[in-house]
Amino acid sequence: MDVYTNAPKDTYVTGITNFFLMPTDSGGILAIAVPKKTADYITSAYTILMILIFMIGWNLILAIIMAFWPTRGDPNRRSVLIALWNSGESMNAMTLMVSYCKRVIFYMIMAKRNEVSSDPDSNRAQSHSAVAGKGLKTDSSITGLTNKGAPLIREKPNGTPDGYFDSTPKCGVSNLLWGLLFVFIALSMSVGNVVAGILVPAQLSMGNVAPAAKHAIFYPDIRFYARDDDNGARFAKLDSFKVPSALRALGVIDSSAATVRKRVNLDRRTASGSVGLNYDYNVTGVDMGLLSDPKLKLLVKGSCRIDDTWFLNSTDEGDTYRFFGGNETFEVKYQPEVDLPPMVNFQINLDFGETSNISYAMIVNTAGFYSYTPSDDPWYMTGKTTNGSILHQVLRRRPVLSCWEAKTWHLNGKEVDGTKLNRLPGLKMHTFWADEVCSNEFFIPLVIRVGRAAGPSALKSASYAPGPSFVLDAGSSAVLDDLERLVLASWVSGRNVLRDTTTYPSGEMVNLALGSEKAGPTGSSVDFVLQSGDVVTLSVRVLIAVPAILLFLFIIKKTLVCVLQDFEFGQGPILSGEKDNRAALLATQLYRGLDQRISSRNWKHAESLVPFAYPSEIEISYQLPRGELDEKLEGRVTQRRASAGDK
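Given the sequence above, the corresponding structure tokens read:
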């Protein structure tokens, strides 16, 4: 849930060394909390790491293809190998392989329409035309184009070609299947790179929580301040420090009621003249931010209905009610002068024993308030008035809401009554939170706790009745709207029970959380997390896994490259004198090899990524003489010594 108010920065702990188990529905996940700006830098860095992972992964795939893919001297397969090695990245490789597959398919279609010549010489000429050119002869009398005198192509005595481009091209189904496989691999790497770039940052950032700081915890000594030997002064102080949290809960409902409503089941009863509301909800350990017991669950169930049998009598001063069939009565003042805001009063049936099933009543003091609009709602029913400017006034004898509520705690299939949390089997929560905080905060229905602390703000109708006149809009007000608002706020208050201990105004009150073993284990943080938009929770698993995967792939790639340099895996050298295809198939090396065969230039660093040609004063070259274009077209190469005027 993202319904929260940002916690002050001094109430939580952040840093890459402060590990904690972030509570989730499936259990705790090891995490750290860092400031939002730091999280942006970390997320950007990990996005770059993901790019490097797929870059190294693609190079590793290319090395495996180079080592084990059987080219069998087929120039088409060798051209594919060169294209893959020089593709740079998987998306470009996929484009190249799609083009290759289209060529193979085109050939297969054309082969069915035309008869392929069986003449070996014709086939050989077709095979080598791309290498030799139209006018380049391949007879054995021609000296080679390499400085070693080795021909690019030569013929064996029986007439079959020999050398480095000596195989008849293959264009069958086998090549098509290999091409489609490479398309699939390249596409998978490209899609994987995009998907990982989206999912990994999302998995890295898990929320906006940080462990609460131990020094920020405050909780009063309820038993001390609940004593009545000082005419209720301490009890009034105890009620006052609950007001901010109650108003925050109601504020959440006024701004995010639809979000909270998804967690609370509300069933209105308005049939046959009966008005009531059944409600139930659960507050989980994850909702409360519990680190120790994220699977803990508090189930709350309650019901309210309008009951006019509790009315006793009415006088000019007010209406009197009798509760729970006893002798205790309560008087609601009539408001003819409208000098107080509309409020709701709560009465609890104290005869509930040791269970959490508590009966309570809600009485509203709207009788006598003026209204701009008429209403027939039980709490806001109006009649005519003699006031000249305002025609409607809420009638007397407003009925009571008779309610009950029960709570149970659940953990790992076990359950106990709402008053016996410390007896729940398997509970890991520190005794301070179980025996003191939860036992006191959930003792009475949270609807009562929020309504009492909120005072005049408890009724939704009061929000639209500003002082000093407090004239109501009775036509837009309803008892069930007020009750729903309090029930929804009680869910928010329940999930914030632990978090509120970092926001209570302590004043001069005694802090029950003080002490070496209070509020949880020793250390800078305690057993729950706070929510704040100023922090980001990062998964330690992802923080470790991404660099580990990158390092693993880098080691595998380096190892395979070293092995390929020392051993042959059935993939012989494609170019003459080149054992290491990894370097030989680079576009720079292909250029060097061709230039060296034609010009006999003095190239150095032949096995590096970028070879280098050193100039020399005297250089024996096998190059085309200037001005002899006709000889070139006839396929004849003249050997001469380089002159000073050559460029």
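Residues 116-120, 122-156, 158-166, 617-647 have pLDDT under 50 and may be disordered. Try to locate this feature in the token string yourself.
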